[in-house]
Every structure is written in structure tokens, then in C-alpha cells.
């Protein structure tokens, strides 16, 4: 089942929520949702801002005082390899070293004092990062102008973006900080970093991010990694769900030695990446299983709702049918009652039956549709309507009928019509003193 806070989200927002949790490692769904809502559900911007916060970069929604980037560098298991400068050899070498020592000491002392005093006059411009991508592109161009295009593929993005991609892709990230003023930087770039075997290893096994510490972006990373000397390389990877420095290489290292050290660091930490991949696969499988369970639940819920809807419709159909039958019964009862009342009224309105001795009387025998016979006398001067009313008042007679004479065979106009607005009398209809008339049932017509 989906978490309660996900019920009012769309499918797309739920997928972004789960993806954001996977990328950032945040356990709380409420915190993940709050962060995404702050960024209008832009997952790229939310992840970037979250990684910036982890590294010490102020969030755009809650900017704290400026502080350096924070990648986990406190792990006591960090592998550190420092290449010391070679000691002078021979009398001439030691003589040159001792002669230059006071000058070096004086130069670097004065330079440090100058830089320290300059901080009180104006802040270090490198402390304000305004165009990190521009810093990276500028360093790449200056590097290619000085050392050529044969070099490892530089990551063309900010340090935060490089960390994000390395975490998302579960790859090693090699960070190179270039000290422009250091005496070993030039030789390292020419002989080591641009060596074909080094290029091949870096391009196939890791992401490579580099910048000069004279650039604001490089200086910011320098404050986070705290290098001691140059050239400086740091290997970073996802370890224990945090981007962690697992190796530091400092000093003028030779190509073969660099390859050996990088390979050693990667082999020693490969199990963490494998473990993280397995955990991600397990989380993905859990998410897929949860999604399948949610889909199955929704399908079952829809099926139950459909069954309930059909039951309601069936109950409503039965109710309407019963009401319809009841209405028909009531209508039929009203019709029969009205019919009976009409029969009684017609019977009451009939004129008295003439006596058999009356010479103007007519004896009529009616043959009903049920083969029964009814006999009654009428007066010649009476309208055929009286015959119709008499038959209508009988219980045996149908509701609708017509009266037919046999010789000649004809239908008597007993009710008003266009041809006979006023029905004729018995005498006008040509009836004799004794007649047999047939009642034809018209109820079903």
C-alpha cells in the first residue's frame, strides 16, 4: 500500500517522490515531499539543492552563512598517499639547496604575510562563487592551451553536479585540484596526467573533475577537501549512503605509480559500490512490488465498486419494476372500478322495458361473444343507443363491442359517428318485431 502522504499525489508526482528519495537517501517521505514542493516538483533542481546542502552550499530556500563544501572526509579509513620531493644528491645538490633555502623561506613567508594582510583589506574574491560552470570551462581552455587536447575527459559541470552524477551512476569520482603557483603542477600535467595509460584508466573507470584553486569553484572545493600540497587528487564515491573521500594522492606522482594507486583504491572500495547497487536493486524491486500491490489493490477496489454499482442498479431496476407493476395494478383497479360505475350508471339510465302486449315493442335476442343469450324488449321509437347502453350494463358484455344484424348483414350504428352523429331509432334502422342481434367483441382491436 502507498504511504498515507502519497494518496493525494498524482502518479507522476509519486514517481518523482520515490526517485528523489532514492537519489538523496532521505528516509522521511514528508521531508522529500516538502523539498519537492519547494522546487515546484522539479526533481533536478531539488536534488541539486539537496546535494548542495549536504556539501555546505546554502539552500536557496534557507540560506545559512557561507561555509565550505562538506563531503565526508572524516572517515578514518581514507587511503592517503603522499609523494615527497626528492632529497638533494651530492655536494653540489646540497650546496644549491642550502643557498636557495633562505630565499625560498623569505619568499613564501612574505607571500603568506601579504595574503594574510590582504584579507583584512578586501575579502578573497575566490570566496564568492558566481559562475561555477564558467570557472570549469575557463580552466579547461587554459589547460588545453598549455598542455594540449590529449588529456582525460573533463566533467563539464560544477562539483555538485559531478557528485550528483557519480552518486546516481554509482561511479568513482576523481577530483584534481590544480595549483597554478606550485612548482610541480606543470610537470605533473605534462608527464602524468596526459600520459596515454593514465588517460585510458580514468576515462574507462571513473568520472574526472578538475579545476584550478585560483578559480572560485576550485577554491570552494579546496576548502572542503583541505589539501596539503599539490598536485592533489581525491577519489570520492558513495559509501554508507554518503559521498565520501576514500583516497587522497598528493605530490608529484609518476604515471605508473598513479595507475597503481588508483587501481588499489578502486579495488579496495569496489565492494561498497556493489553493495550499494544491490541495495538499489532491492529498493527498486520493493518499489516495483509496492507499485504492483497498489495497482492490484486499486484494481480490486475498482472491481468491488463495479460489483456494488451493478448491485445498486439491479436493486433500482427491481424497485422500478415493482413500482411499475404496482402502478399497473392500481390503474387496472381504477379502470375496472370506473367501468363498473359506468355500467351501473348506464343501467340506471335505461328506460323501462315495454310490455309484451305493446304493439310498438321489439323483442331482441342478443347473442354474446361467450355464446350466452340475453333477451329484452325495446320500443321502436327508442334510439339504437339504448340497445348499446343495455348491453354495456351487462356483466357478461365486453368493454368494447359492436352490434351486428344478420339479414341483411350489417353493423348497427349504435354510437355517434361522422356518418351518424345521432344514431337512428330501432324503426329507422329497419328492425322487425323480433330480431336476433350478434355482439362482436372489439376489446383487443
From TrEMBL:
Record's keyword annotation contains Cytoplasm: yes
Region (Disordered): 299-361
GO molecular function, one term: ubiquitin protein ligase binding
Keywords recorded for this protein, A-Z: Coiled coil, Cytoplasm, Endoplasmic reticulum, Lipid droplet
Source superkingdom: Eukaryota
SMART domains in alphabetical order: UAS (SM00594)
CDD domains for the chain: UAS_ETEA, UBA_FAF2, UBX_UBXN3B
Alphabetical list of Pfam families matching this protein: FAF1, UBA_8, UBX
Location of the UBX domain: 357-439
Gene Ontology biological process terms in this record: lipid droplet organization; proteasome-mediated ubiquitin-dependent protein catabolic process; retrograde protein transport, ER to cytosol; stress granule disassembly
GO cellular component: lipid droplet; VCP-NPL4-UFD1 AAA ATPase complex
Basic and acidic residues bias spans: 303-348
Subcellular location(s) of the protein: Cytoplasm; Endoplasmic reticulum; Lipid droplet
InterPro entries to which the protein is assigned, alphabetical: FAF1_2-like_UAS (IPR049483), Thioredoxin-like_sf (IPR036249), UAS (IPR006577), UBA-like_sf (IPR009060), UBA_8 (IPR054109), Ubiquitin-like_domsf (IPR029071), UBX_dom (IPR001012), UBX_domain-protein (IPR050730)
Main location: cytoplasm
Gene3D superfamilies in the record: DNA helicase RuvA subunit, C-terminal domain (1.10.8.10), Glutaredoxin (3.40.30.10), Phosphatidylinositol 3-kinase Catalytic Subunit, Chain A, domain 1 (3.10.20.90)
PROSITE patterns membership: UBX
Subunit structure: Identified in a complex that contains SEL1L, OS9, FAF2/UBXD8, UBE2J1/UBC6E and AUP1. Interacts with YOD1. Interacts (via N-terminus) with UBQLN2 (via C-terminus). Interacts with PNPLA2 and UBAC2. Interacts with ZFAND2B; probably through VCP. Interacts with LMBR1L.
Function text: Plays an important role in endoplasmic reticulum-associated degradation (ERAD) that mediates ubiquitin-dependent degradation of misfolded endoplasmic reticulum proteins. By controlling the steady-state expression of the IGF1R receptor, indirectly regulates the insulin-like growth factor receptor signaling pathway. Involved in inhibition of lipid droplet degradation by binding to phospholipase PNPL2 and inhibiting its activity by promoting dissociation of PNPL2 from its endogenous activator, ABHD5 which inhibits the rate of triacylglycerol hydrolysis.
Identification of the protein by name: FAS-associated factor 2
Amino acid at each position: 500500500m502507498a504511504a498515507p502522504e502519497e494518496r493525494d499525489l498524482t502518479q507522476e508526482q509519486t514517481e518523482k517522490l520515490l526517485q528523489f528519495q532514492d537519489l538523496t537517501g532521505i528516509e522521511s517521505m514528508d521531508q522529500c515531499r516538502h523539498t519537492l514542493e519547494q522546487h515546484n516538483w522539479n526533481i533536478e533542481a531539488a536534488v541539486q539543492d539537496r546535494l548542495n546542502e549536504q556539501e555546505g552550499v546554502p539552500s536557496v530556500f534557507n540560506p545559512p552563512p557561507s561555509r565550505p563544501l562538506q563531503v565526508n572526509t572524516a572517515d578514518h579509513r581514507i587511503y592517503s598517499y603522499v609523494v615527497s620531493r626528492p632529497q638533494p644528491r651530492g655536494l653540489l645538490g646540497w650546496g644549491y639547496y642550502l643557498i636557495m633555502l633562505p630565499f625560498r623561506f623569505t619568499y613564501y613567508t612574505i607571500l603568506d604575510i601579504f595574503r594574510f594582510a590582504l584579507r583584512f583589506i578586501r575579502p578573497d574574491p575566490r570566496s564568492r562563487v558566481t559562475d561555477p560552470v564558467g570557472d570549469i570551462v575557463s580552466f579547461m581552455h587554459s589547460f588545453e592551451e598549455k598542455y594540449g587536447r590529449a588529456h582525460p575527459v573533463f566533467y563539464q559541470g560544477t562539483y555538485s553536479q559531478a557528485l550528483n552524477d557519480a552518486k546516481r551512476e554509482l561511479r568513482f569520482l576523481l577530483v584534481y585540484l590544480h595549483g597554478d603557483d606550485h612548482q610541480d603542477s606543470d610537470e605533473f600535467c605534462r608527464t602524468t596526467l596526459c600520459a596515454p595509460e593514465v588517460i585510458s584508466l580514468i576515462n574507462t573507470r571513473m568520472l574526472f573533475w578538475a579545476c584550478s584553486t585560483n578559480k572560485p569553484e576550485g577554491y570552494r572545493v579546496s576548502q572542503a577537501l583541505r589539501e596539503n600540497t599539490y598536485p592533489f587528487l581525491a577519489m570520492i564515491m558513495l559509501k554508507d549512503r554518503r559521498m565520501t573521500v576514500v583516497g587522497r594522492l598528493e605530490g608529484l606522482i609518476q604515471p605508473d605509480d598513479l595507475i597503481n594507486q588508483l587501481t588499489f583504491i578502486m579495488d579496495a572500495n569496489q565492494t561498497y559500490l556493489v553493495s550499494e547497487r544491490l541495495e538499489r536493486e532491492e529498493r527498486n524491486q520493493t518499489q516495483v512490488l509496492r507499485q504492483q500491490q497498489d495497482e492490484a489493490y486499486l484494481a480490486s477496489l475498482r472491481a468491488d465498486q463495479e460489483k456494488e454499482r451493478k448491485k445498486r442498479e439491479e436493486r433500482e431496476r427491481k424497485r422500478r419494476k415493482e413500482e411499475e407493476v404496482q402502478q399497473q395494478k392500481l390503474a387496472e383497479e381504477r379502470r375496472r372500478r370506473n367501468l363498473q360505475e359506468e355500467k351501473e350508471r348506464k343501467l340506471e339510465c335505461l328506460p323501462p322495458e315495454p310490455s309484451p302486449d305493446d304493439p310498438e315493442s321489439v323483442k331482441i335476442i342478443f347473442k354474446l361473444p361467450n355464446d350466452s343469450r340475453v333477451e329484452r324488449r325495446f320500443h321502436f321509437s327508442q334510439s339504437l343507443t339504448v340497445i348499446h347502453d343495455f348491453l354495456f350494463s351487462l356483466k357478461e358484455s365486453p368493454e368494447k363491442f359492436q352490434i351486428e344484424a344478420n339479414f341483411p348483414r350489417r353493423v348497427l350504428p349504435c354510437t355517434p359517428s361522422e356518418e351518424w352523429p345521432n344514431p337512428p331509432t330501432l324503426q329507422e334502422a329497419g328492425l322487425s318485431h323480433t330480431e336476433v342481434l350478434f355482439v362482436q367483441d372489439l376489446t383487443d382491436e
